[in-house]
Amino acid sequence: MEATVALKLAIQKSGRLAEASLRLLDDCGIRVTATGKLKAQAAGFPLEVLFLRDDDIPQYVSDGVADIGMVGENEIIERGKDVSSVRPLGFGRCRLSLAVREHVAYSGLDYFQGKRIATSYTGILERFLAQEGLTAEIHEISGSVEIAPSVGMADAIFDIVSTGSTLLLNGLKEVHTVLRSEAHLIAHPHLGPAQQALLEQLAFRIDAVSRARNSKYILLNAPNDRLEAIIRIIPGVKSPTIVPLAQSGWSSVHSVVSEDDFWAVIGDLKTAGAEGILIVPIEKMIG
Ligand code: PRT
Ligand code: ZN
């Protein structure tokens, strides 16, 4: 009997990416239970899930212990392992920034010359400083980097920032963003043909979910003499659907709008004469 091929996916065991990774799989119709263990077999797709620390995911994928993984770009770049990026995943967004004590009169990157900077991301920081022609003392710390300046261990920090409230709480201010990051789907650079085919199927599902997450279905009513102006605002995937209403001289317009332009579009539609606007989430969006 032929052994069944399953794609091995590494995701974070617990932490900021764990839940969003499982939710993405779930939206792709792939159910994973038995979290808390090291491994789980998924239902709905030939997938075996490995639960790891995020720091270890690039290594496991480059070694081929896992075929693919979901991990932050910050870790991919810092670890410098041989993996290929398949897709950005739209979650785990953050930035890697330099921060100094709030009372420092910061005038530019020259400030960091000869200073002590605490970080867990020594590789990215070293490359950045070299590129800027700066020399600084890098102190590697694995956790709670933000307390280093207040205990006198460093003059500045280089760390992940999301809302900025951790910096604020520790009397620090963000002064320079070095890298913007989000979670990516990564793959071993030399997958076998069966694994590659499964990866393509999974990427197809992820694309359908990502497109749907970034879009909304919009329905509205409009007098027929305003339709032309309204169609110009919401052109839709191909072109909008227009259905006549029971009330003569009126139509219902259905289309898709991107999450990003959503609020701007609503304002324009109202100005153009649209009424009864309904916005509905889209579950999956193919091609
Ligand atoms: O145990 P394991 O090693 O797996 O987890 P970890 O503790 O190393 O990582 P974890 O779960 O904290 O983060 C996993 C990934 O999430 C990171 O590698 C980033 O890609 C991404 N991410 C997104 C973040 C944040 N946002 C974030 N805010 N990672 C960390 N933070 C930290 C930040 O450093 C700060 O200390 O969260 C704190 C709060 O941030 P503010 O700015 O919102 O206050
Ligand atoms: Zn980690």
Brief summary:
With 287 residues, this protein is of the alpha/beta class. The chain contains eight helices and 15 strands.
Task: Give structural notes.
- The protein starts with 6 loop residues before the first strand and ends in a 6-residue tail after the last strand.
- The protein is an alpha/beta fold.
- The protein has a six-stranded mixed β-sheet, with helices on both faces.
- Phosphoribosyl ATP binds next to helix 3, strand 9 and helix 5.
- The site of phosphoribosyl ATP has 22 residues, from helix 3, strand 9 and helix 5.
Question: Secondary structure elements and their pairing?
Answer:
Layout: E1 7-12, H1 18-27, E2 39-41, E3 47-52, H2 57-63, E4 68-72, H3 73-79, E5 84-88, E6 94-101, E7 116-119, H4 122-131, E8 137-140, E9 156-161, H5 165-169, E10 172-181, E11 183-187, H6 193-213, E12 215-223, H7 227-233, E13 241-244, E14 250-258, H8 262-271, E15 275-281
Bound molecules: phosphoribosyl ATP and zinc ion.
